[in-house]
Design brief:
The protein is an all-alpha fold. It contains twelve helices and no strands. Helix 5 packs antiparallel against helix 6, helix 6 packs parallel to helix 8 and helix 7 runs antiparallel to helix 8. The longest helix has 22 residues. The protein is elongated and about 50 Å long.
């Protein structure tokens, strides 16, 4: 694997900015997933508690989040940035916290944030295969697309996550799908110098 001069965060920022500017504006103005959360009858936290819970989640403090959930609050909270608790847990790489959230009733595994990213998107981008396996087992849509047509496979390929790419392909990911700019996963991997990932993708039927 070649060393990536760009950090994964910078790659994501450039990717999204170059391919999805118009779609992001639409998404910010139209956060449709909130309708799913609105039907949850469990307790919802105020703004102060909401901030505290997401701080615990970002830090991987599973027991603190469990206390919150055991008190009757909903796991379907949304951060000011539009992320669900599951997305935050998956993106930051906390498998125990992901397991806890998924164990709660009526948690939408395919919840999309304002950019159309799901928990599986975030875990794939970071290469957290243990979390990806949990999400896929829970019914996550492997070929989900954001507003720019980007899939979890594309994000795993973009950051050269070989094991994540293999897992997604074995789980039914479409290697030939293209985003709105016409890039498939192999092209994105090649652009970042991930030759081994590009080769696997190019050979996949």
């Amino acid at each position: 694997m070649r060393f990536f001069k760009l950090t994964s965060v910078r790659i994501l920022a450039l990717f999204v900015l170059s391919l999805a500017a118009a779609s992001l504006i639409t998404a910010w103005l139209n956060p449709s997933p909130v309708a799913v959360v609105a039907r949850d009858a469990r307790k919802k936290p105020g703004n102060e508690l909401l901030t505290v819970i997401f701080d615990h989640a970002r830090n991987g403090e599973t027991e603190a989040v469990k206390m919150y959930l055991d008190s009757g609050y909903t796991p379907n909270i949304i951060s000011p940035r539009g992320d669900s608790l599951l997305i935050v847990a998956a993106y930051h790489g906390y498998p125990d916290l992901v397991k806890l959230v998924l164990a709660q009733p009526n948690v939408p595994v395919d919840f999309q944030n304002k950019m159309g990213f799901t928990a599986l998107t975030g875990a794939s981008f970071k290469g957290f295969t243990d979390i990806m396996q949990q999400l896929i087992a829970a019914g996550a849509t492997v070929n989900h697309r954001n507003m720019s047509g980007q899939t979890s496979l594309m994000f795993a390929s973009l950051t050269g996550r070989f094991d994540a790419v293999k897992l997604l392909l074995n789980s039914g990911a479409n290697a030939k799908a293209k985003d709105t700019a016409g890039n498939d996963a192999a092209a994105l991997a090649a652009q970042q110098g991930a030759a081994d990932v590009a080769a696997v993708l190019a050979a996949h039927p």
